[in-house]
Amino acid sequence: MATLNPGITIPRDTAAPGGREPDNSSDDPRGRAPLVLGDNDFSSVTDKVTAIALKPMNQTPKAWYVAFAISLAMLSLLGVTVAYLLTTGVGVWGNNNRVAWGFDIINFVFWVGIGHAGTLISAILFLFRQNWRTSINRFAEAMTIFAVTCAGIYPALHIGRVWLAYWMLPYFNQMGMWPQARSPLLWDVFAVTTYATVSALFWYVGMVPDLATFRDRAKNRIGKLIYGLAALGWNGSSRHWMRFERAYLLLAALATPLVLSVHSVVSFDFAISQLPGWHTTIFPPYFVAGAVFGGFAMVITLAIPARQFFGLKDMITIRHLENMAKIMLGTGLIVAFAYVSEFFVAWYSGHHFEQFVFANRVVGPYAWAFGVMFFCNVIAPQALWFKAMRTNIWVLLAVAMCVNVGMWFERFVIIVTSLHRDFLPANWTMYAPTWVDMGMLIGSFGLFFTMFLLFCRFLPMVAMAEVKTVMPQSHVEHHGDYAGDYHGDYGQTDDESANDKEDQP
Amino acid sequence: MSSPSPSPDLSKQPLRLGPESQGWIRFCIIAAVVGVLSAVAHLFLAVDGDKRFFLAYVVAYGFILSLSLGGLFFVMIQHLSRAGWSVVVRRPAELLAANMPVVALLFLPIAVSVAMGGGEIYPWAQPDSAAVEYAEEGTFRESLAGVEHLYLHQVLDGLTMEKRPYLNRPFFLLRWALFLALWMWMAHWFLKHSTLQDETGDHQLTVKQETWAGLLLLIYALTVSFGAWDLLMSVNPHWFSTIFGVYYFTGAVAGTLAVMILLLKFLQGRGYLNEVVTVEHYHDLGKFLFAFVFFWGYIAFSQYMLIWYAALPETTGWFTNRGATAVREEMNGWLWIAILLVVGHFVIPFVGLMSRHVKRNGGGLVFWAGWVLVFHWLDIYWVVMPEMGPAVVLGPMEIGLAVALSAVFAIGLIRRASKVNLVPTHDPRLADSIAFENL
Prior knowledge:
heterodimer, B: mainly alpha, 2 strands
């Protein structure tokens, strides 16, 4: 907030030794490290972010085309597998009598979980006044919406008769087909659609000032028209800003409980049952922590290449990555804590089936899956205790990849190992995915990356207006006594000054 | 490098408690004596027996322990997040945490009850010779003081015996020695570094606390969770809930924030900390209080709803004993306390603390802080006391012990507080904290 003074600890033109990135990860408590590096002022931030989206198609980086082609190919695999599934039936999946939930629910929970980081960054970190979130919130929110889109596919298809999916909505009808309000699967419908709606609204509302900048800078007619419509007549007047900031604060407050509610409701799908391994009271907060854990892993996975290819290293700095690494470590430890609680209480309960399920996870036929999960979620993140590891991009990327894999396997372990061995050994069976399952998993990544690449190319990837509020220039007027150390240019020289906020919402 | 932000002028007001604090101590001594006397009188005049005394003691103990643990959490989380706003309100939290030696001393009666093997608090603390193969639900037993209602889990049956490797007397006492030692050491460590900085002004002390806060918080999470299982969950050794540690923790932090608000207001009313702690800090403490009231509601709902929905007898029993059941024949008076908790610990303060105006209005915030604190006690009361039987017990015993232990806790707190500054005078972020504004 206003009383913090970013940018007094480290000279902003820190030349890093050996051509390495400038290091703003200092934690000297006498000041706050700068969050925007390099020789940037308000106009250069605008220039850099708008240039990514507004350059002509023939100047798009080749890497973008390559990535887009691969994503599109994966997406078409989703199309093929879904078409095959719809024309044949859900029997093409590996689900069987005992393991009635397989890849479909695993992938659903996985993708919904990914979607948590965006809202956490944009709502909860906003309420906690974490200024560093401004550089990453926009694409994290975009990631949220795309991840929730991917998640929605699976339950919709799992109901079997997709064309009757609307029966889950409480619309007025003469057939008396009311939704089963006692089923957490129905609660999911409401929780996830509410979440998707509020996330999309939050994302869009936050983007309006930046879309106005795009409108003003767009060169071609189509761009002007589309960005112009999307900017809703924003003119940057102080009245607009006042209403914008109020709306943003209210949306943040509304989105905060949603961060908790969505994955809590997803955990109810399991925890309300009487199944050993599923029925445990820690599931709601444990699922939320796991979702944030996995979500941050995905944000890091996307942020590291994005800052590299789009030249955003000044805005998404080492400090941002380090902070995300810390949140990942923290939520990872909560997940590990939940594992400890579950195993201990399974023994403590004196409930023999409960004890069997947990023993079966560790030494049963799916022990390998448990091993992958345990290594990726519990062991690998421990590297992040050390600053040298958190600030090393390759280590961070490797850990984030581990967590992506680990959190997928966590859902596999929870779902498959709890289901495949029933109370009666006669019902014991194994589960294996079919090629359709695998195709749909790969395909959902195709959908995710296709949407993400389109977003990077055509929309403001960094929240320009918000980033400017955490630059020292924004604080000069209020705190003149801090200005002595600032060597940059205080003035706003570009014609975007109308879009520069004076202070944080 | 720039020079640190200009030092605020703290010379205008007292930084340490004056001699008037002796008067507060005298008041607390009287309160403690009255509390103990009323509990003892109740013990001898009523027929409830020593079981009620010890259970009421656990309620009071769980209450004051939670205030120390909540203070420790507040200190750790502020260091971990390198917070600037909270510097001026951190010392009260450090002192609450550092009061842990008093809390540790007050553990002795519980330790004695466990060591003696009477099983007044914990049925599992009875010796193996008391074990039976089979018992009937709702049996009665003759005790020294009269007839006692007995729940199935209060008989040392086969299920409880299966938990023997964990629920046994030496291991329990060893665990608690370890927990209390760790909590005392952590709290002492933070207060020591913070007060050392008052003298030296060395900013490296802040860096050191921030560096270790993460690891210490991990130890804290494990010890508090196992501690809550031991102290409060195992009064019913049959029952189990993985979330129970989190349940205790959320209530503890809500109670602690309430105490911090009340303490700061109390001190400001007597001329301390004015112009240092401002309405902005109360606003933020109020937001935290609101958040933890909500968090408690979320955790309590999750625990109840999942157990209610699955309706497995091994876990619903705990709620049935506490009146929270939909079966009319099994309902008892504790249902009213349960409903009171839902409304008073969650719904009403949630609505009451929502408005910005209330959080920035001294009187309003004090009212809600007091409210939350009372309901935090009631929460622990509802967790423990229904072990007495289906009839609600609330009398001089429960209230007297709560007052007595709180008063002893307060005496320790005042004595500790009078030896240190009330504000971390040389924290590098002190100026940031004093100038902080909610925009």
